[in-house]
Every structure is written in structure tokens, then in C-alpha cells.
Design brief:
single chain; alpha+beta; 6-stranded antiparallel sheet; 3-stranded antiparallel sheet
Length: 181
């Protein structure tokens, strides 16, 4: 499997890598990460071709958890007093799939760099809102994601209410436009 090079654009665990957006450390050859592709999410794993989840199968909002195991609900949001994601054991993207209906998780390994809580929560809010509006396919458009990420990065680690997170995700989607897909 070829190693992908990062270009420095990021939002929490989301990073532009080799022309695709990926959640997790795609630069490490032994890592797990999730790519956003035009046809859906693609789980990349060491020594495997990975597995794909088409956008049309994802029926409910994607949420992120942190930790070594996907089933540990205590790691839903572990953050440090300085506003960073706590722990270095990786993370999980959780979603509900249709046809057949099932709960599904995709694993990703964290980067060496720390993630700001506000960035991780804004990413999760964007994923949830795109799902709610039936627009997850926009994640397969790297330029669209880049415009949305540009709107979501920066700012302070404050105003982390659900209402504020929804508002910033709505603004990022509006600024990013309709997308080319």
C-alpha cells in the first residue's frame, strides 16, 4: 500500500492527504484511517485492501469516540482541562447503516499531534449535519471539504454548546457551497 503524504490542512483528526481527506494518521504505514471518497467512506488498515461503506448506506449521524475499543462508552468525549482530546489510543467513527440495518464502526489511529477539542467537536457536528440533511456525499468532494474545513478551523476552545456547533456547521456548509458531486 503506498504511503500518502500530508499537506498540512487539518481539522482535529481530519487531514488532507494525497488529494483525499482522511480521518486518522494516514502517513504511518501501520495505521488505520478512514478516507472520504466520492463513493463513500473507505477504511484503510495495515496489510489489507480495506473496506468501503457507500454514502447511501449511512442512515444516521456519524459520531466520534476516543479509545482503544469501540464499545467503551466512557470515551465518548475525554478532554483535558486545556481543551485537548485526551488519550492517544486512537478513535472510532460510529454510524448506523441500512440494508441491512446495523451499527458500524470504522477505526482510526491518532496523529502524533494533539487535537483541539473544539476541532474534533466541529468535525463531528459537520458529519452529523451532513447526514441529517442527506448530503454526506459532499465529503467525497475534496475541494468542498477544504472550503468547509477552512470555515471550521481556528477560533477559541469556547462556545461548545450543541446550538453553537450546529450553527458553525451550518455556516461552513453554506460557505462551502453546493459542491461539484
Amino acid at each position: 500500500m503506498p504511503r500518502m503524504e500530508a499537506n498540512g490542512t487539518q481539522l482535529g483528526p481530519l487531514e488532507l492527504v494525497g488529494g483525499h481527506w482522511a480521518v486518522g494518521d494516514a502517513a504511518r504505514p501501520d495505521a488505520h484511517w478512514v478516507e472520504f471518497r466520492p463513493d463513500g467512506l473507505h477504511q484503510r488498515e495495515p496489510d489489507s485492501e480495506g473496506r468501503s461503506v457507500p454514502w447511501s448506506r449511512i442512515m444516521s449521524g456519524i459520531r466520534l469516540t476516543w479509545g482503544k475499543h469501540s464499545w467503551n462508552p466512557d470515551h465518548r468525549g475525554m478532554y483535558t482541562p486545556t481543551g485537548m482530546v485526551a488519550g492517544r489510543d486512537g478513535g472510532w467513527m460510529h454510524m448506523t447503516l441500512r440494508h441491512p440495518y446495523e451499527d458500524h464502526q470504522l477505526r482510526f489511529d491518532q496523529h502524533a499531534r494533539p487535537y483541539r477539542a473544539v476541532d474534533a467537536l466541529r468535525l463531528e457536528s459537520l458529519l452529523r449535519q451532513l447526514s441529517d440533511e442527506g448530503k454526506l456525499h459532499l465529503l467525497g468532494d475534496p475541494e468542498w471539504v477544504g472550503r468547509a474545513v477552512a470555515c471550521l478551523t481556528g477560533g477559541t476552545n469556547s462556545r461548545l454548546t450543541q446550538r453553537a456547533l450546529r450553527r458553525v456547521a451550518t455556516e461552513a456548509m453554506a460557505t462551502a457551497g453546493p459542491g461539484s458531486l
